[in-house]
Design a protein that fits this description.
By secondary structure, this protein is mainly alpha-helical. The protein contains 17 helices and 2 strands. The protein is 65% helix and 1% strand.
């Protein structure tokens, strides 16, 4: 009996076709394109993925196959000679060694195990990033960070206006895509990194691009600037100012040093957009968004509302003082009370727990990467961290001379953000979560690109972004 004409005919599944598709998928995963998408997606996860666990799942599925393929084909010989990756691995080994000897993790505290997994995952993740950058695809990673952050900023602004500002008038902006509301400080620093990356993308765009694409980039830049402003994070402000200061210096140097990456003609729209949004915000936030602030009254006088977007944001920032940071630093240094501890540190976890007890739960880490490194792994750890930063910084400087100054800008942002914040440079899973992005991403990228192409300063084309 013939089937009715209006009924769909059943199609048999060909096992050979399924096998062929799986083979094509496997070949793509281990290809340079697949590895690039894997690393780019992992970085985008800082803005768009709900938690670190999702990033790890993405890492296992998309990064490890390509990395294993490169390993088997013996394409990673030069990677083992890279000083940044080698010293990073040594610093992780030292920190974990001291930490496990001093305080072995308890099974009932999941965070310690997550930290260990994040520490073990760091070398392969940054090995993959090194390979992608060495293949000349660093620009893809930069654009991924920029536009992922721009998307998160747009969503955060809508969520702030429709949810946060309704439930808590004047609340600081959070990124709702991460943990359902990432802390405003972390939101600000992640947003600031994307803001600077967006600025670099505009500067590095070809001058002959259509006007609407340039306008769209500037519009995204304005939205990202407003989102960072609404976090009221001084750490994010300091980091952004550090990155923009380097951009400005490079633009001015280009007038007398033609090989420097950034021209004043491409830089001034970026600086003007960011400055205009920031000035309007700090002068009168309600001019940009309908901000409602319930005044706090103490003894009949109106007081500045800490942790809010107030009508006098500068007064609020000054009223915070150091928010106890210098007390945290003195407490951490006081823990180094013997010469062995000064040399190799107090170890992981226990110093942070002690600080949390001393502050009645107000702080669970030291809020400074240099101080935390000194406490956790002593003078040896600080020397290793410095030994990784110096070659990466020198290579970023040489790349700037060759017309690739973006990595020096991102390093300036990272240093600005980590000097007064950060818990550890040795894991992908920390309380703030942004240390690896701010420090190791630009260091590794600059080192990989410098390995890829060693040319005399000024020999490259000015607009060539690799």
């Amino acid at each position: 009996m013939n089937p009715r004409s209006d009924e769909p005919a059943l199609t048999a599944v060909n096992p050979a076709d399924t096998s062929h598709r799986l083979l094509r998928l496997r070949r793509w995963l281990v290809s340079p394109d697949g590895l690039t998408i894997g690393v780019a997606g992992f970085l985008a996860g800082y803005w768009l993925m709900w938690n670190a666990e999702l990033q790890f799942i993405w890492m296992v599925v998309t990064i490890f196959p390509g990395l294993w393929s490169h390993w088997r084909q013996a394409r990673v010989d030069r990677m083992f000679q890279d000083p940044v990756l080698r010293i990073m691995t040594a610093l992780i080994a030292l920190t974990l060694g001291v930490g496990l000897i001093q305080n072995f993790p308890r099974a009932d505290w999941n965070y310690r195990w997550e930290y260990l997994i994040g520490a073990l995952a760091m070398p392969p993740v940054f090995a993959a990033l090194w390979i992608v950058c060495r293949h000349g695809r660093a620009a893809t990673l930069m654009k991924t960070c920029a536009w992922s952050g721009a998307l998160a900023a747009a969503v955060s602004l809508v969520w702030w206006h429709e949810v946060q500002a309704v439930e808590s008038p004047g609340a600081r902006l959070h990124n709702p895509l991460v943990y359902g509301g990432l802390h405003p400080v972390a939101t600000g620093i992640f947003g600031g990194f994307a803001l600077v990356a967006l600025a670099l993308c505009y500067i590095r765009q070809r001058a002959d691009r259509s006007g609407w694409k340039n306008a769209a980039t500037l519009a995204a830049l304005a939205a990202a600037t407003l989102a960072v402003c609404l976090t009221i994070s001084r750490g994010a402000y300091i980091a952004v100012l550090a990155g923009l200061a380097v951009i400005t210096i490079m633009a001015l140097l280009s007038l007398i040093w033609p090989s420097v990456a950034f021209t004043l003609r491409r830089t001034w729209p970026v600086l003007a957009t960011i400055t205009a949004v920031a000035l309007v915000f700090f002068k009168d936030p309600s001019a940009l968004l309908p901000i409602k602030v319930i005044p706090t009254v103490i003894d009949g006088k109106q007081a500045v509302q800490l942790e809010t977007v107030s009508s006098d944001t500068l007064a609020e920032l000054l009223a915070r003082g150091d928010t106890g940071r210098f007390t945290f630093y003195r407490s951490g240094i006081a823990m180094l009370d013997t010469w062995p501890k000064r040399l190799t540190g107090v170890g992981l976890w226990e110093p942070d727990e002690q600080l949390e007890r001393q502050t009645s739960g107000a702080a669970n880490h030291f809020h400074s990467l240099p101080v935390a490194t000194l406490v956790h792994s002593g003078a040896a750890g600080c020397l290793l961290l410095l030994a990784a930063i110096i070659p990466g910084l020198l290579r970023a400087w040489h790349l700037m001379q060759q017309g690739q100054g973006e990595w020096l800008v991102l390093l300036a942002f990272g240093f600005g953000g980590l000097i007064f914040d950060g818990q550890s440079a040795c894991s992908l899973v920390t309380h703030p979560r942004f240390e690896a992005l701010l420090l190791w991403v630009p260091l590794t990228a600059a080192s990989a690109i410098a390995h890829r192409r060693r040319v005399p300063p000024g020999a490259e084309c000015r607009g060539n972004w690799r």
